[in-house]
């Protein structure tokens, strides 16, 4: 219970104040009473001292009690204070107005007695405390509803509601720009897989802390879920300002994070949409920012992408490909073509290439294979390619004397599957095909993350005797470390280097010569891809690059054409010693 209550009486009438003070003094309770006749002085008193209860007259000459109470409640110094409105008259409407404005009670002056006033004050104080408890509970629930429990940032619900309000305000100021950004951490799944989910969660917390430091008070910032964050800022004047915000985010991730003794590197992809240029609704802006973020994730160097109208068409195109892929029957709709790999005119092997002749949207592998990777169908498609290649070429590959080999492309997504190598080895055993007759082609993308499952799969395939070929060498991320730490047997030099070597540019020729010499000194087989002229073929021969592949020799062809072309008696020679 209360030992003493501080009470402020605010009434312009001296007699009324004295009457209230007398009633308080005669009550069986300890009150510390302060009285004021003017509203401004009452506000000053609340600045100097905390009051438990304010007895506030409704009728005053300068301002009525409800207006004064609303003004007093706005003061930062008013805390834990209950208000009781007192008046010489009252009706139901006035009482409701006072209660709705925040008064804890309404008392007629003619009804005031010491005991009644004591009861009213104590009830008002208790009612105020209960209201505060209810408000605090509401704030906790509201925080739970609007805050992300892991990072403490706002969540999707709050972000979308706040963005909606900013858009409504923006409609009144069409000259101003609102930027909406979605940010997704790159390779976050790899971090979880490598270090565990506890490290992944802590990384999200540390990322949020860094972002908080670079954001200003007028910038909305939230975690939507997983490793995706959202940002919004209004009152911008140009795209340059918007990009500066995005670059601040990316720069915040430049330094690695130290988490549980692990040095964790993290980067991000940011998609940006602008109001009103890209849309005037919350849904449109979020969708456009998401599309732009998807494009940014595909870019190697530019990780901040602003939405453009053609991106929508690209997303729709990929969606159509995905839909058709999901409906397709691999056995009925796909087929394999084979492009020979030659050595000094003799066919030593062939690369198996998947074709989709019955496709309605696109028949280009460079378009449907990336979509298959993104939508999770590449594992099934990849195994079908492997099974089909073994089935079609079993005649050549079952002979122990045959050195003819089939080179089969494997997606980085397949290599991250823990049981991939075992599945491939089992298929060879079932078909009774020797490991020497199979080469697995990978790209350097598969080696970028040092994924444990990828390296284990490659080692298992290598130990079984399957040769690993590194495809498209010379593009993108070419790194010597990949050649040294992975069991690479063959390197296929990309056609872009071969194309340039056919020109008169000495630098291009020198590059090809240097790459070939280095690989040969590492005892790696070198295959020149994309040979399209006799000049290119001759120059590669001069560099002791004897394995060639390209349209100058043969285009990809169906199995029947390859069968006619390859004669076991005079065209299949020993390629492996």
TrEMBL record:
Modified residues (4-aspartylphosphate): 57
Domain EAL positions: 318-570
InterPro entries reported in the protein's UniProt record: Biofilm_reg_signaling, CheY-like_superfamily, EAL_dom, EAL_sf, GGDEF_dom, Nucleotide_cyclase, Rev_trsase/Diguanyl_cyclase, Sig_transdc_resp-reg_receiver
SMART domains: EAL (SM00052), GGDEF (SM00267), REC (SM00448)
Keyword terms of this UniProt record: Phosphoprotein
Transmembrane regions: none
Any Gene Ontology biological process: phosphorelay signal transduction system
Single Gene Ontology MF annotation: catalytic activity
Domain GGDEF, residue spans: 176-309
Response regulatory domain sequence ranges: 6-124
UniProt superkingdom: Bacteria
Cofactor: Mg(2+)
PANTHER family: BIOFILM ARCHITECTURE MAINTENANCE PROTEIN MBAA, DIGUANYLATE CYCLASE DGCP
Official protein name in the record: GGDEF domain-containing response regulator
Organism: Thalassotalea euphylliae
């Amino acid at each position: 219970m209360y030992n003493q209550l501080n009470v402020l009486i605010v009434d312009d009438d001296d007699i009324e104040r004295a009457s209230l003070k007398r009633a308080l003094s005669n009550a069986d309770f300890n009150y510390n009473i302060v009285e004021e006749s003017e509203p401004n002085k009452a506000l000053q008193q609340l600045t100097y001292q905390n009051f438990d209860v304010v007895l506030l007259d409704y009728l005053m000459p300068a301002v009525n009690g409800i207006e004064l109470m609303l003004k007093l409640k706005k003061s930062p110094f008013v805390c834990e204070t209950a208000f009781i409105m007192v008046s010489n008259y009252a009706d139901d409407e006035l009482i409701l107005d006072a209660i709705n404005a925040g008064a804890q009670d309404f008392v007629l002056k003619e009804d005031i007695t010491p005991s009644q006033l004591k009861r009213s004050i104590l009830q008002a104080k208790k009612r105020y405390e209960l209201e505060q408890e209810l408000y605090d509970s509401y704030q906790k629930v509201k925080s739970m509803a609007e805050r992300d429990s892991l990072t403490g940032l706002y969540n999707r619900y709050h972000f979308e509601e706040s963005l909606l309000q900013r858009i409504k305000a923006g409609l009144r100021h069409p000259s101003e720009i609102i930027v909406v950004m979605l940010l997704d951490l790159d390779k976050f799944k790899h971090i979880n897989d490598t270090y565990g989910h506890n490290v992944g969660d802590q990384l999200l917390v540390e990322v949020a802390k860094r972002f908080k430091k670079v954001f200003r008070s007028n910038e909305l910032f939230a975690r939507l879920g997983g490793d995706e964050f959202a940002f919004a800022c209004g009152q911008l004047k140009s795209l340059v300002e918007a990009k500066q915000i995005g670059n601040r985010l990316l720069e915040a991730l430049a330094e690695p994070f130290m988490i549980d003794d692990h040095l964790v590197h993290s980067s991000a992809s940011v998609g940006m949409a602008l109001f009103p240029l890209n849309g005037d609704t919350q849904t449109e802006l979020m969708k456009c920012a998401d599309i732009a973020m998807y494009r940014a994730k595909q870019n190697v160097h530019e990780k901040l992408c602003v939405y453009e109208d053609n991106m929508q068409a690209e997303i729709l195109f990929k969606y159509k490909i995905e839909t058709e892929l999901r409906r397709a029957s691999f056995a009925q709709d796909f087929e394999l073509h084979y492009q020979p790999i030659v050595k000094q005119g003799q066919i030593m092997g062939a690369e198996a290439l998947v074709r989709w002749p019955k496709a309605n949207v696109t028949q280009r592998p460079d378009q449907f294979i990336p979509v298959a990777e993104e939508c999770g169908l590449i594992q099934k498609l990849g195994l079908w390619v492997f099974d089909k290649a073994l089935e079609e070429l079993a005649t050549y590959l079952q002979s122990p004397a045959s050195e003819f080999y089939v080179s089969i492309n494997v997606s980085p997504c397949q290599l991250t599957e823990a049981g991939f190598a075992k599945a491939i080895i089992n298929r060879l055993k079932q078909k009774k095909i020797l490991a020497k007759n199979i080469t697995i082609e990978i790209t350097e993308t598969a080696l970028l993350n040092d994924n444990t499952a990828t390296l284990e799969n490659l080692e298992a395939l290598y130990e079984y005797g399957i040769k690993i070929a590194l495809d498209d060498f010379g593009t993108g991320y070419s790194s010597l470390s990949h050649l040294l730490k992975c069991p690479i047997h063959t390197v296929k030099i990309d056609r872009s280097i071969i194309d340039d070597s056919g020109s008169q540019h000495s630098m291009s020729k020198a590059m090809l010569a240097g790459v070939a010499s280095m690989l040969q000194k590492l005892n790696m087989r070198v295959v020149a891809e994309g040979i399209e002229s006799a000049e290119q073929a001759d120059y590669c021969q001069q560099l002791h690059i004897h394995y060639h592949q390209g349209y100058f020799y043969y285009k990809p062809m169906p199995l029947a054409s390859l069968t006619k072309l390859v004669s076991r008696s005079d065209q299949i020679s020993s390629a492996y010693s």
